[in-house]
# Entry
Amino acid sequence: MDVDIKLPYVQWVKAKGHKYPYYRRNGVSQRIEGETTLEFLDSYQRIHASFENSTAPKGIAPGTVEDVAQQYLASPEYDQLADKTKGDYRYYVDLIRATLGDFPVSSIKRSHIKAL
# Structure
């Protein structure tokens, strides 16, 4: 898509001779997908809504592994675990965060987890 669409939080980045749209907000950039205008707008609206409705801290993209991990570690369910269990779980959560933290949860496949 080579048309510049003016929407809040959209930046167009030129790379390899093409222009790519990114949704940039709160220090986070997410590529806006879509080959057609309708697909582009659907992707934009989905990303925009995820930021509007997010409880993610600034600099963390909503719906990413990092966002979900932080929500879990702050949850009452995690807090109620025994200290040893918390330590064990924290080790694996941190391992997953270090490897897959920036990825959207929806894009993670079983093969990604098995590769850890």
Q: What stands out?
A: Residues 63-116 form one domain. The mean pLDDT is 84. The chain has two domains: 1-57, 63-116.
